C-alpha cells in the first residue's frame, strides 16, 4: 500500500514562492502518473498539476505559467514549485496517484496560505 506525505506549505505574501514536496513510501512509484490537488475552504478538491511516468506535465489554467510539477523516481518524490502566488491559491494541497481508480487514501495535505 502506497502512502503519501505532503510537506512544504506555509504562509507567504502574494507574489512569493513555495516548493511543496510529496514523499511516497511502499508500492511502486515510477510507473504511475502523479498529481497535485488542492482544496480551498468550502470548495471541492481540484486537480492543479499532473506529471506522467515519463515526465509529461499538464496544468490547470489557473496555475499555468506559475506552477511547475516535477518528480524524482529514485527518491520517490513529487514536487510542486509555486511562484507568483496569489491569495486565491490558498488551500490545502495534496498529492496522489492518477487516475482516480488507483488513487491511494488521501494524506493530511499541506496548508498553503497566501496573504494579500
Explain this structure to me?
There is one protein chain. This protein has 116 residues and is mainly beta. Helix content is 0%, strand content 51%. It contains no helices and ten strands. The chain has strands spanning 3-7, 10-13, 18-25, 33-39, 46-51, 57-59, 67-72, 77-82, 91-98, 110-115. The strands form two sheets. The chain has a six-stranded mixed beta sheet, with no helix packed on it. It is globular. The termini are far apart. 30% of the residues are buried. The model has no long low-confidence stretch (mean pLDDT 95).
Quick description:
This protein has about 120 residues and is mainly beta. The chain has strands spanning about 5, 10-15, 20-25, 35-40, 45-50, 55-60, 65-70, 75-80, 90-100, 110-115. The protein is globular.
Rg value: 13 Å
Biggest sheet strand line-up: 2-10-9-4-5-6
Oligomeric nature of the chains = single chain
Percentage of β-strand residues: over 45%
Distance between the termini: 40 Å
Strand count, sense and barrel status of the largest sheet are: 6 strands, mixed
Please give the share of residues in helix: under 10%
Overall residue-averaged pLDDT value: 95
Number of strands: 10
Which structural class best describes the helix and strand composition? mainly beta
One letter per element, helices H and strands E, the order comes to EEEEEEEEEE
Amino acid at each position: 500500500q502506497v502512502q503519501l506525505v505532503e510537506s512544504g506549505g506555509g504562509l507567504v505574501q502574494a507574489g512569493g514562492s513555495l516548493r511543496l514536496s510529496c514523499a511516497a513510501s511502499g508500492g511502486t512509484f515510477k510507473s504511475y502518473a502523479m498529481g497535485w490537488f488542492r482544496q480551498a475552504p468550502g470548495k471541492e478538491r481540484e486537480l492543479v498539476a499532473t506529471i506522467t511516468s515519463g515526465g509529461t506535465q499538464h496544468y490547470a489554467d489557473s496555475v499555468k505559467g506559475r506552477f511547475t510539477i516535477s518528480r524524482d523516481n529514485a527518491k520517490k518524490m513529487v514536487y510542486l514549485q509555486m511562484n507568483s502566488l496569489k491569495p486565491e491559491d490558498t488551500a490545502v494541497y495534496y498529492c496522489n496517484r492518477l487516475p482516480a481508480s488507483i488513487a491511494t487514501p488521501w494524506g493530511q495535505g499541506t496548508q498553503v496560505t497566501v496573504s494579500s
